[in-house]
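Quick one: structure tokens for this chain, please?
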Amino acid sequence: MNSRAHVGVTGLAVMGRNLARNLARHGYAVAVHNRTAQRTRDLVADYGDEGTFIPVESAKDMVAALSRPRRLIVMVQAGRATDDVIAEYATLLEPGDVIVDGGNAHFADTRRREAALRRSGIHFLGTGISGGEEGALNGPSIMPGGSSHAYGLLAPVLNDIAATTPDGTPAVAHLGPDGAGHFVKMVHNGIEYADMQLIAEAYHMIRHSTGYQPRRIAEIFREWNQGRLNSYLIEVTAEVLAHHDADTGLPFVDIVADAAEQKGTGRWTVQSALDLGVPVSGIAEAVFARSTSGHGALRAAGSALPGPVPTILGERDAARFIGHVEQALYASKVISYAQGMHQIQTASRTYAWNVDLAAVAAVWRAGCIIRASFLDRVRESYATRPDLPSLLADPAFAREIGAAQLPWRLVVAHATRDGVPVPAFAAALAHYDTLRTPRLPAALTQAQRDYFGAHTYRRNDRPGSYHTRWGLDRSEQATA
């Protein structure tokens, strides 16, 4: 077989198929392969007029079809399936070739795979791709991690197929070695969980407190989308709330079962944060909210528990309340992004990735699910101060959050009074208050640990570690 394909794609489910079409539309000859050969044939039959597709039936044929250095994009299910595909190709590829894993892999797996392939001279790029099936086809946000050399082999291709940001640059950047790209994509998804939960809580509070129907609330979200909350998720929310079910005529949101599923990346974000010792309480509450929504028996057992009598606001009070919810939603959204950026920053130091947070924000401005206009400001903040310890340390964001704190508190208090669960709003506010509190009750916690476990403590007035011999008539402190 002649070597005439610029790039190969193996795994032709929705994401892989659309990514192959995106490549072909940009003038690349694409070798395509799927374990089920019919899927390959269907792609060529249905979309063959979009560009040059070279169907192959085996990994050996794929390798023969690719020009050197070979560039292969793997789009199969994360986990064992990815390992199996990589193992098969590792015996066929040659030093200098590059494998791209475009799936939602766990970053630890990516680090392991990159190290193993590096020993055989094969390059590996763990690449987060965000934007769903539409993004894969029309331009996703792309987050590669791997060696600079490996990225250089793919950069022209990735630049061509990525989404275009508002300033005209491609939504792609080399984010660091080995697992950096997949880690950033994981945190992106964690922030996505938090963003969606906050939006859901805002909708729930407005509907519960005003009695407005979803179609009317959709107009509120459309108005918000014209301001600082402008984002893909706010836009989507307005569309969903305005939609009515064709069969029943009911608001679509009322006929959907209230049990949200998850694919695991949000959970990974929280697990990684725990390993790194990083507080991502807003993201964690969003993950737990989805988990709770799926526990039908648990919810049924609690459905008869007593609660407050709800109140419905009049038009004037409702308008004021909706303004407060907008403030609270914006402030909580900033907290979620701040927590996610801090997690990336901490991981970057832990794993020696040297991730550029300004580049992360820049890549998220287009193509991905959490794209939002305020990310331009996030990018500027980290570009000005790469070592910014928190997004909340940026003076402009600090002023906005400070201005929003009173309505934010009123919203959380209102929800608590009426018995409306707002775990993400409350967690975001608690995080804000934790950061601004000069002395936390952690002093008592550490003293308790010293009492029952001799875990020692540090003092404010002198260096060193100390232990008190509790229960004696005379307290005795000794340097541990």
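The longest strand covers residues 123-130.
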